Amino acid sequence: MGLEAALWRAVAFYRGASLVYAAALIVKNFGEYAHPLGGWAVLAVMVVWTLCATYAFSDARRRGWPLLAADLAVAAGCLLATAWVETPANIADGRPTLPVSWVAAAVLAWAVAGGKRTGVTAALLLGGVSVLVHLAAGTPGTAGPATFNGIVLLFLAGLVVGHVVKLALDAEARLARAVELEAATRERERLARRIHDSVLQVLALVQRRGQEAGGEAAELGRLAGEQEAALRALIGAAGEAGVPGRDSGGGNAQGAGAGDGHAEDADADLRPLLNGHASPAVTVSTPATPVRLPVPAAREVGAAVAAALDNVRRHCPGGTRAWVLLEDDGAGDVIVSVRDDGPGMPRGRLAEAAAAGRLGVAQSIQGRIRDLGGTVSIVSAPGQGTEIEMTVPAGPREW
């Protein structure tokens, strides 16, 4: 995971920075050591292990307990070597151990790998080694505040870092799950729009024409109506359960051809796409200059407009007129409005339709524009027609 890799990089940085500090103290004090060559030997071990540990911990496959145990053993050995390299008098005076804060890198590694319990365990082990330094040097009574302050700092480092790492990894996992669920929901909504634009509309048409024709066609229409209701219920149940839908490749029946022949990251002029809806009953008004959107956005806007006009044809009396207006407000937004002079809708009608699984507005229009980062405004009243205003950003988006 990305966060875990960043944590291990932070441990590697701390290991290197604390090595520089320990090396500076060894260079400064080696003339006062009981065994100066021993000080250089300990420094050499620290340098070699810093390089080896940095490389080893960089790969998640090697971050097992053997490596962690070796890291702690090297840190404990360098710490214990202080009793041999330093003079008892310097140890009694409270001079820092040879590796000083470098040993805390092993505690941090245990905390990152296993959480606060393992971090605290490593800190207690190294704290015990710090006490052994005084015992081995023959100065047990001089293990005063400085020694215990170091042990407490190791303990706090293992506890706090381990706890924070656990919280951070849990938060990253929850975020990944939320992103996955959002992607699944968006995919399901796209599938629902495709189904509404194709299968459900065909089934509704067969039902209506079958009832009009009568006879055997009426039975066919009845079966089509049952299948339409079952499919709507299935889509609704998938939405409540958060089941992702997968588009099997059947394109959108309305507006799927927008931008054909263009790369997905190219722009398309929205005017020709909307002008294709012009008819004796539909008046389309567009600016004299191109109104450009990314090709995927143009396709979705075109499909939303097609769905709005299809609702006019399906739910309004014959002879109802519709007007499509395209505007570029010059401030980064493209506005498309679809207005009709039909009977309008009573208050609450859209909510009832969405609850019944009728997705013409909820998904084919509002869902598409919402996925583009835009907004939809619907104004309707009985006897006053309906106006749907769709506003989408003209800037590029990730697809």
TrEMBL record:
<dbReference type="InterPro" id="IPR003594">
    <property type="entry name" value="HATPase_dom"/>
</dbReference>
<feature type="transmembrane region" description="Helical">
    <location>
        <begin position="64"/>
        <end position="85"/>
    </location>
</feature>
<keyword id="KW-0808">Transferase</keyword>
<feature type="transmembrane region" description="Helical">
    <location>
        <begin position="37"/>
        <end position="57"/>
    </location>
</feature>
<dbReference type="GO" id="GO:0000160">
    <property type="term" value="P:phosphorelay signal transduction system"/>
</dbReference>
<keyword id="KW-0418">Kinase</keyword>
<feature type="region of interest" description="Disordered">
    <location>
        <begin position="242"/>
        <end position="267"/>
    </location>
</feature>
<dbReference type="InterPro" id="IPR045975">
    <property type="entry name" value="DUF5931"/>
</dbReference>
<dbReference type="InterPro" id="IPR036890">
    <property type="entry name" value="HATPase_C_sf"/>
</dbReference>
<feature type="compositionally biased region" description="Gly residues">
    <location>
        <begin position="247"/>
        <end position="260"/>
    </location>
</feature>
<dbReference type="Pfam" id="PF19354">
    <property type="entry name" value="DUF5931"/>
</dbReference>
<feature type="transmembrane region" description="Helical">
    <location>
        <begin position="12"/>
        <end position="31"/>
    </location>
</feature>
<keyword id="KW-0902">Two-component regulatory system</keyword>
<feature type="domain" description="DUF5931">
    <location>
        <begin position="1"/>
        <end position="176"/>
    </location>
</feature>
<feature type="transmembrane region" description="Helical">
    <location>
        <begin position="150"/>
        <end position="169"/>
    </location>
</feature>
<keyword id="KW-0472">Membrane</keyword>
<feature type="transmembrane region" description="Helical">
    <location>
        <begin position="120"/>
        <end position="138"/>
    </location>
</feature>
<keyword id="KW-1133">Transmembrane helix</keyword>
<dbReference type="Pfam" id="PF02518">
    <property type="entry name" value="HATPase_c"/>
</dbReference>
<dbReference type="GO" id="GO:0016301">
    <property type="term" value="F:kinase activity"/>
</dbReference>
<keyword id="KW-0812">Transmembrane</keyword>
<protein>
    <submittedName>
        <fullName>Signal transduction histidine kinase</fullName>
    </submittedName>
</protein>
<feature type="domain" description="Histidine kinase/HSP90-like ATPase">
    <location>
        <begin position="303"/>
        <end position="394"/>
    </location>
</feature>
<dbReference type="InterPro" id="IPR050482">
    <property type="entry name" value="Sensor_HK_TwoCompSys"/>
</dbReference>
<feature type="transmembrane region" description="Helical">
    <location>
        <begin position="97"/>
        <end position="113"/>
    </location>
</feature>
